[in-house]
Amino acid sequence: MRVLYFSMVRERVGKEEEELEFRGSVGEFKEFLSSKHPEIKELISGIKLAVNEEYVGDDYMLKGDETVAIIPPVSGG
């Protein structure tokens, strides 16, 4: 799958995108990302995932051929 990183996640991971092999739920994928990139571990609970440009929940099942956008929490005022 193609994984796209945005904002502070991109800065911490040090890349805009990467190819990863993964099949399973979005919740499991977040755990996988936490172990692969420990520098974003504290952000994982607040990130949103968009699969093929649509937001999905933690129970969504990834097949491994998608484009997954990792979108960190947005703060503002």
Based on CA atoms alone, the radius of gyration comes out at 11 Å
Structurally, how many domains make up the residues? 1
- Whole-number mean pLDDT: 93
Strand order of the largest sheet: 2-1-7-4-5
Q: Can you count the helices?
A: 2
CATH architecture: Roll
User: What is the CATH topology descriptor?
Assistant: Ubiquitin-like (UB roll)
How far from one another are the termini?
34 Å
Helix percent band: 10-25%
Q: Which geometry do the CA atoms define?
A: globular
CATH superfamily: Beta-grasp domain
- The helix/strand order is EHEEHEEEE
Beta fraction: 25-35%
Helix-strand makeup class: alpha+beta
DSSP summary, beta strand count: 7
Please summarize the sheet with the most strands. 5 strands, mixed
Q: Quick one: CATH class?
A: Alpha Beta
Q: pLDDT below 50 for ≥5 consecutive residues: which ranges?
A: none
Descriptive notes:
The chain is of the alpha+beta class and 77 residues long. The chain has a single domain (2-71), classed as Ubiquitin-like (UB roll) (Roll). It has two helices and seven strands, in the order βαββαββββ. The strands form two sheets. A five-stranded mixed β-sheet has the order 2-1-7-4-5. The longest helix is centred in the middle third of the chain and has 11 residues, at 26-36. The N and C termini lie far apart (34 Å). The model has no long low-confidence stretch (mean pLDDT 93).
